Amino acid sequence: MTAGNTLSLNNTALTSLGSLNLEARTLTLQNIDFPAGSIVTLKSALGQLAPFPNTGLLPVTGFVNYVSGVRYGGTLLTASPNPNITIQSLP
Hints:
Elements: E1 6-10, E2 19-23, E3 26-34, E4 39-44, E5 64-72, E6 75-76, E7 85-89
Parallel strand pairs: 1-3, 2-4, 3-5, 4-7
Antiparallel strand pairs: 5-6
């Protein structure tokens, strides 16, 4: 999925996906569970995860934002890297 300025996904079912690419100037994710074993690429303007992921803070422009309830295979994502999730900057 690609959006120009902001891409927001909330309560979106992402079952049975082997790979997923999301890109926009700002990515805002809430209540998403990436399927276990999937390869996820997230691209934003700055190519960084916003501080304090999954704590309910407001989204930060230019970042990948895990607002709340963002999981991978049922495990809540934190600032620790997940080998199956890549965060990059937009070209």
